[in-house]
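Case study B.
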Amino acid sequence: MAMLVVAAATYVYVFDGDILGWNNHTATTQNDKPSTNLDKPTDEQIEAGNDIKEESIGTKSDPVSQPGSGKQSVEVIITAANQNSGMLQVRAQISGVVSIGQCILTMSKAGQTVTKTADTQGLASTSTCKGFDIPVSELSTGSWNANLTYENDTLSGTTSRVITIQ
Amino acid sequence: MKIKQAIRKFKQPNRLVLTGVFFVVTLVGVNSINSAPTHAAPVVGFNAGRIIDDSVFTNANSMDAGQIQAFLNSKVPTCETWHAAGYGQNPPFICLKDYNENGRSAAQIIYDTAQQYQINPQVLIVLLQKEQGLVTDTWPLNTQYRTATGYGCPDTAPCDSQYYGLTNQLKWSGTMFRAIMNNSSSWYTPYILGNNTVYFNPGPYDNANNRYFGRFGDRRDIEYCGSTTVNIQNRATQALYNYTPYQPNQASLDAGYGSAGTCGAYGNRNFYQYFKDWFGNTYGIDYSANYSSQSAYPTVYQGQDASVSLSYVNNGNKPWYDSASAGAAGQPPVVLATMMPINRCSDFRATTWYDCNRPTGLFSKVYESNGVTLAANQHVVQSGQIARYDFTMSVPGDFYLGTFKEFFGPIREGAPGYTWYMGADYVSMNITVLPAYSGSYVSQSNYPTIQQNDKANIYVRFKNTGLYPWFDTTSVPTGQHPTTLATDWSINRISKFSSGWPYEVRPATVFSHVYEADGSTLSSNQHTVQPGQVAEYSFPFTAKLDTSPGTYREYFSFIREGARNWRIENATAYWDVTVKQSNVTAAYSSQSAYPTITKGSSTPAHFIFKNSGNVAWYDDTSATSGIAPIHLSTYDPVNRLSAFADSTWPNGNRPNYQFSQVYESDGQTLASNQHIVQPGQLARYSFTLKASSSQQSGIYRESFMPIVEGAPGYGWNTGIATWLQVTIP
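Model:
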């Protein structure tokens, strides 16, 4: 059987398929669309899928209460602090999917304080503050300490970061 | 096969060598033909700031529902429907390829979501795999469908039930992706285009010591595995981080699909790798256009314009600028050009085009991907948005009739090399040209029966039903084309009856009459036919002496002389012309008395002949081109030079070319036409005989005959001759 396959493949290759009218097409236009892989999944793909399944089924640990606050702690991180076109864009990520609560951003520097507040928006697996775009004109150049706090009735979290205004 | 035959068939000499290698390789690898390829290799090409391009992320038409179904089928060849109970669920287990929700299959739900939110269905498929492993799972749990895309499922808290269900999960995923792609002002994200702090891992758990790694122990420490500043380059990548906010560390990339230890993070790595392995490159083409829509094919009269539009979607990575915005952006504008071939000068170019092959360089409208919502910037087309080009097609007044395909496509004007090309399907705007010049039949003279050597007067009338006036050769303005009557079937056919026409194939070039629409009231301008008015041409059919008897069909058409599209539509008429055999004969009627002429003096004489034939006689006054006149000629022999010719004779053997009188058959009553002798009528030829002073005395016989002047053969002979006895004393 293998020899027949080899012989047939050789026939096609040597004769370019011309004798039987087979055509040797090679489409090489710029806009060739990649073809979808309809093979069986590889073992690695299957195994990775199974790992994902197990992880998604696994129990999740409860958040730890913030000492003294009586509220559960959530992680807050500043993911972006970019100065663009006269605006300081500060973005935050809150662990957990929440749509209730308030974010408070306090920028402080040598006796100056600028405070902004924003609501929150839930995302797929985290949340974010609906803000912050601060006109640079409200901030002098130099290093500012940015403290971001999120809080609602049951959750709270905080983070801080140094942001340099140019 | 014979080896010698095989060798002669070779097109490239080195194929023999390669074929031998092929043999060996094939034999060695024959046992592995049916094995799926293994993939333990590390992930290659992952760029944390550019995981997938916007154009690929938003290519909603990459697969239809059938193709999605076929793909899902391929990833679970055998579903373990009756797998043993596990994770708290008893069988049966329904695989994704077989899953239905509210009457729709999973494949259909994926497709519909992709269309609704203009997100690539392949992205949604990979999302289902990366979040729940659903695509390859051979015995998925019901809970996996409940949180199929992981939407509303934080890392450290239960999932929010308001997002439960496959359809709901895909809907929210699509909503978020689309909001981020649109940079919606009502959708906030932790990540923006530009520099962002992206962590590797949210904070791993130390199973060996039952605590979290890092500073706290009792809760996660996101700083433990660290972060880098990632320059997020496009919104699709921004969208992925909004979904899964962690980037893979190097160990994760080195592990391929596998685990990478404490700080491993796999969500976005798996997205990238699954997409590449299943659907190809996550990067799109910088500049690419796809046909979106066009206005209806126009139908236009000659000389008129049509407004049309063509729309294309930007399915590349880079924005398009038009001629209004390209300068500030420092980019070549994306303009609409003629195609097939590129830069073809169009016959339908309008004055608004900025070149003969450039209908427009401006976006008339820019829409969001839904094709309905106007984009904020009407001169920049972002990836996934749609550009509409409005332009005019102008039909020249004398253009051909029919349907013509005009091809167009967007190009990057002035881009170096072949980078002007944007890969768009060349789209044709089929324009149908209707005649601006047309007529409708009004009337014509009857089919004539004509004797040889006779004629019939003909007329034809047509109404101008077109858009523009008809001018004849006396009124045509400079630069325009006169309307004439031409022989047809085929055009410029040589006619037997063309004697007396302005040209052999043009019976008439001047309107004989122009009427108002009623067809009877003469219009004020007899040489211009306005739309709605009626033109008349009059002309003769002349049958010559040698025109064979029979019936002939003669076609004629109104045309526009010298125009590119010369035919006036629906303005053709024909006559069946019957030609009869003619007998041109004369009978003697009377004559003057035999004269006695003194030398050096003159005396009048005459003959009267009856037209005893079946065709009218014409003299030089009445005979038109093609008709042989009946002249009085000397006879015995014919054309004998007479000694008694007077200076009034046209020549020495022709006493008279004219009928002096024409009588009715009674010989007394003058006929109404004194230059045409109908059959039965009588013609009198009067002339003068002169005897010269040197003429010899004697008696002379002078014979005469009416003849058909110029008739071929013996056709001149009318059958009667007579004579005068002239006495010279």
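Helices of chain A lie at 2-15, 43-57. The remaining cases will be described in the next quarterly update.
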